[in-house]
Design goal:
Distance between the termini: 31 Å
Number of strands: 0
Radius of gyration: 23 Å
Oligomer: single chain
Mean pLDDT: 86
Order of helices and strands: HHHHHHHHHH
Number of helices: 10
Helix content: 40-55%
């Protein structure tokens, strides 16, 4: 089987997501609502607005990070650039778009940028802190180690592999 690679992180929607043709088919809905339901980007913008999600710039500043510049936000695809300008989003960029553009600009599309990384990291840490069975909640410290089946320390690679069930 050939190797498969993930697409780069960028601001372009994958073709099946750019037109959600299976959405908004209820004839009881107005044509305006049906058009909105078929357009993921519009749905994301409306959801962010209705939930009062802060802008990407506001989150960057709150995290003590330098926000993307206007030039960085406007780099690349002309259609995206025009949409940002026409929508008034250059200085107030929706967070979901900002995280994607930051990954595109700062990470070359290969990884999240500072704001996106921080959101992911803090989400994972928050989950670990709230999980009563997490090592962060039990008082366990990695320096205490994990005892082997015989009660002794796991202090060699062989003992670790046995502990992991990968060595006889």
């Amino acid at each position: 089987m050939p190797a498969r690679f993930a697409r780069k992180i960028d601001t372009h929607l994958a073709p099946p997501l750019s037109d959600l043709s299976n959405e908004g088919t209820d004839p009881a809905l107005s044509e305006r609502i049906r058009r909105i339901l078929r357009r993921l980007a519009v749905r994301n913008l409306l959801r962010g607005y209705r939930l009062a999600i802060p802008t990407g710039q506001a989150v960057a500043i709150a995290l003590g990070l330098q926000p993307l510049t206007s030039d960085e936000l406007l780099s690349g695809d002309r259609g995206v650039r025009d949409a940002l300008i026409d929508g008034g989003f250059v200085t107030d960029t929706p967070l979901w778009f900002y995280v994607l553009k930051e990954a595109e600009v700062k990470g070359g599309g290969n990884h999240l940028g500072p704001v996106g990384s921080r959101i992911v990291a803090e989400t994972i840490i928050g989950q670990l802190l709230e999980d009563p069975t997490s090592f962060l909640s039990t008082g366990w410290d990695p320096s205490q180690g994990i005892p082997a089946a015989d009660g002794g320390p796991i202090d060699t690679i062989i003992k670790f592999l046995r502990f992991a069930g990968m060595h006889p």
